[in-house]
Fold:
Amino acid sequence: MTLSPLRLRILHSNDIHSHFEQMPRMAAAFEELRSAMGDAPTLTVDIGDHLDRVSPLTEGSGGAANLDVLEATGYDAITIGNNEGLTFTPEALGRLYGPAHRFKVICGNLLESGTGTYPSWGGPYHIFDKGGIRVGLIGLTAYYPDFYRLLGWDILEPVAVAQELVWQLRPQVDLVVILSHLGLKQDERMASEIEGIDLILGGHTHHLLEQPLRIGQTMLCGAGKFGQYIGVVDVGLDPVTRKLTQLEGYVKELARAHTAEEQRSSHGAGSSDAKLMEQQLAARIEAHRLQAQQALSLEVAHLREPLAAEWYQEEPLGNLLAAALRKYTGADIGLVNAGQLLEGLDAGSVSAGRLLAICPSPINPSRMLLTGQQIVQALEESLLPEFTEKPIYGFGFRGKVLGMLQVDGLTIEYDPEGPAYRKIKQVRMGDGEGLDPEQEYRVGSIDMFTFGIGYMSLSQGKEVQYFLPEFIRDLLRYELNNPEAIAASKAYRWKRLPLKP
Structure:
């Protein structure tokens, strides 16, 4: 008698970035896809960057709201992305992932630097037995050694780790699956270089593969970003030969998130299990929202007068942030793009939530050596609309446009009517000597610039040093409680010619 193939459905998501408005719909879609399999098993996984501290729910709950959603949605396993690994301290990750959860946390290339071992809440791989199909899952996260080292982690080169773990797992399982928060190019590299991988479920670069890629014997999938799509992979296995008879994937586009009114009007007798799950998860998220709002309502500063911020001109709040970067990093000069600040601050109480709203980017301070010529190049570009109005997405930036440079430690005399790249007439250190084009200066700035984003000459610095775990909004909070720093922020560094007597 011929036995029917064993069946398994794998459901996957990636790069949700705390889009809570979409999570109930995702949970319902997962439930529908599970139900459609009848008695056949399913495996539900997330590929990282589920958390994003730009979200008040994530920030106000310390990530607990995300973990509750993962649990309630029915995930079996997750890996972590850079938004988990680099924006939360190891202690915070221990509080999030340490308690018992129904899902496994898998990350094969992240070790504690003190012990050289995996954290107690995670491991390099996990083997699931799903209806007689043995599935080996390997988790890998993006390789940022300079940043992870400062947080107390040793991060290993992921492709080498994948090679070793595939060798270990392949004899033990029917299906080798990599949960890869590495990006599409690295996924393609692993598929090309490593034998024995059946399936790579990808993330990090937000790639949407409506039809899977196939490289050799490996299938690559990716479900985009923000919960706009979820991924489905259907697996068949011959129970005798243990060979795959089916490996097919696709993505399912999800409808927009329901409004609260639509959710209320759709509730009633006869709702499907999926609809009920959607409504229950929406209610849980709303409960987290109220708790997060309370946590973020705490006062972090009190201002006697407002502090303005603009993207295309110098204003005190931008100067205050530039000065904070200079002070905190021990630099000669502070530089930051005005687009890091979405709005200014009114007089009176400043809450943690308001500070998050105006400075949402999980961006860290940095310090580097730049020549006077490199600094002036960036300052000249800062006067050109093609730079200041440039939209930016990613690399930690959660603003809208680049904006002009806000500075501290410099006095700049410029003619706005001058030709491009010849508008600046003089740059001085404070009110003293002129900036020497050949001399190197210590510049306190932001990590985004070192990645080649925004003002390109600022990515050419030497001896780059990053400062973690503080975000730039943490530095701003410190200085909002410093009356002398606030007073100094009102002195203009950009002096428009002709100078008024």
In short: Residues 258-271 have pLDDT under 50 and may be disordered. The two ends are 100 Å apart (CA to CA). DSSP finds 17 helices and 24 strands in the chain. The first strand starts at residue 6 and ends at 13.
